[in-house]
Design goal:
mainly alpha, two-stranded antiparallel ribbon, about 55% helix, binds zinc ion
Length: about 90
């Protein structure tokens, strides 16, 4: 299913951005108050807004799973739907 791949790409993007923000915000990264700190602040704002848009997009291409419970299974502690492969 094509949309499943699209969802994976969107998820990868969200994960990547989330990780990048977390990296920038690590306490050992003291960006001070100069240009670097301003750039980091803008980067975080931009990526946060991107994450918001991609979450909206994800909702559009992957509406919540409505398959019956008997289609649900657990893999590696993560509940998912065997029919649409969506994490639940
Ligand atoms: Zn489903």
């Amino acid at each position: 299913m094509t949309s499943k791949k699209a969802v994976q790409i969107v998820d990868m993007f969200i994960e990547n951005r989330t990780k990048h923000i977390a990296d920038l915000q690590r306490p050992e990264n003291d960006w001070g108050y100069g240009i670097a700190a301003e750039m980091v602040k803008h980067d975080i704002e931009r990526m946060t807004s991107e994450i918001g848009w991609f979450k909206l997009l994800r909702k559009e291409i992957a509406p919540p799973c409505k398959h019956p419970k008997k289609m649900h299974d657990i893999c590696g502690g993560q509940k998912y739907c065997m029919n649409c492969n969506m994490d639940l």
